[in-house]
Specification:
heterodimer; A: 228 residues; 7 helices; globular; B: 465 residues; mainly alpha; two-stranded antiparallel ribbon
Chain lengths: 228, 465
Amino acid sequence: MSFFSDPQFGERVITLMAALALVLQLGMVSQRWLITNIRLFGVQSFLLAAIAATIAHFNRAPHLYAAAGMTLLLKVVVLPLWLERLVKRVGIRKEIEPLINVPASLLISGGLTLLGYVVAESFARPAAGFPSRELGHNTLAVALALFLIGFFMMINRRKALSQVLALLSLENGIFLAAISLTYGMPLVVELGIFFDVLVAVMLLGILVYRIGETFESTDVSKLRRLRG
Amino acid sequence: MEAANLAAFAGALLVAARLAVTVLAGGPVAAWNGFLYADALSALVIFLTALVALVCGVYAVGYLRQDEREETVAFSKLRKYYVLTPLFVFTMLLVALANNLGVMWVALEGTTLASLFLITFYGRKTSLEAAWKYAIIGGAGLALALLGTILTYYAASRMLGTETVSSLNWSALATRAELLDKTTMRLAFILILLGYGTKAGIVPMHTWKPDAYGEAPVPAAAMLASATLNCALYGLARFYVLTAKCLGPGFPSRLLILFGLLSMGVSVPFVLVQRSYRRLMAYHTIDHAGIMVLGLGFGGTLGTLGMLLHMTYHTVTKALLFLCAGNVQQHFKTDLFRRIKGGVIHVMPLTGFVFLMTTLAIIGSPPFSLFQSEFTILRAGLAAGHVAPAALFIGFGVAIFAGALLHIGKLVLGPADGAPPATGRPWRDSVLAVLGVAILVMGFWLPSPMYRLIQAGARILGGGP
């Protein structure tokens, strides 16, 4: 089992998993069903946890195991289950109802992925004098692509819960950027971020529920009484 | 609940004053292994936050009691207010106290989360809409800021060669910021500006602001418009110092001047044609956020001094302005200009008088203090050779001056329509009277320790120790 300690093998596995995460993100763009979207997000989070654990193993960064564990618990188990329950309680059946149709959305996402690669390229050539010790810039490019596509999804979606999901996948991109650039943030900060994400999604969920009850719809493009 | 709240806020103010005195006498202090850190800049923000918290706390007692008497809200809701507000204040204090820039981000996100259900307090359709915008726009903005913070950490860990908690600590970064990787810091600053700019409500990420300020209960809106704005600008200023040291002041200054002027310019038409006085004040806050960002952008001794003076004066004055508006809204049951026929001053003499005086102060007419700080920022702009931005600054300032004075003047000084004078409201009137005297005095005299604290804070913004 010598490949388990070969860093090159580790790098390849990480790149593969990052690519899969990007594929899942594109899947979320093209999916119209909310439940499927939630599950795709869960799988994507699982991949991120696996990437974090792999980096922790190959680069001897034990505190990343904690981040991997937290991701597994929070984003793979707790949040998806909670969101699915919420979908049933609010009684949303389908419809992500994007503003731009799916083929055009996918095209835009492709463009954003390219943009992610262009930006990541500028990090691949570190200024002279700095030891180059970051992971392959593929992972960073994927992270930036997840981030940008997440942003695009937020703008593109009309339903309240689907916007929350977009925000979560955007946050996944940030997490991937953090672990690929610096092997994760310091543990205190990481814990704080996880706590904030958890509370934010819970509060947003409550808000979605109340919007659904009050307006009898969670289409946030109908919230337009406050203007000027 | 009321007593516990007031005691906590009074205690916080005492501690904040004590901290300011300590910092003035002996320089920065740290605690808990460097987890908490306070220099003059943090001490100033902390003091202002604690002050606003106490003032709004006292006001809230009277305000919420009236709401309960008139059965606008149920008693159980009051408990919610008194639980959420201390949490909200705690997160704001943590923003200024945290040494680690990552923890600062966590605390800033915390202010959004803690204040979210203060905005939905009245449970109206419009307040749900406002809260939704606040949460989603704020969440997206803070995500940008988080990416910026991560990039800063990346630059820092490459510079220091280690990845420990302390590599994101302000006290460690500020001394060696010129060694940070330049490409990374450039991108990081843009992300931070957009992110914390969203939280501060500068254009074009300001759209949540009028809704949130218009829907939250008045004491909470007053805190959002003064103390929370300060916290967001404080976060931005910390990164400005790092970026200016790393890349030279030119790059961040240009961006700050651009966004500052944009904020001022965009708020002008909305102030001029506004129908609701709560939203008018919100747009006015966008204008003031723009002024402070502009002051920071002009930089130099004068610019940073002007920014912090403006922050101090704006905090007190804007909080008072919201509290006056709260009295008007509770009495007339509307926040629309056209529904209020008679002049406020005939019905509520004290509120009307203070309202008008505060309006004159906030739009920057002499002899009030905001005139001085705006003038300082203007001088900074001219001294640094930014003639066109300075000219635009004057133009926008005059337009907003006219718009706000016209609207509020009509509201306060309209004809008497025979409505009976309102009954006394001891909690709120005492706050109004005390703060009214305070802003009058501040126009002529700022206590010397306060001024020295502001000067020391400005030195930190200028890159000093």
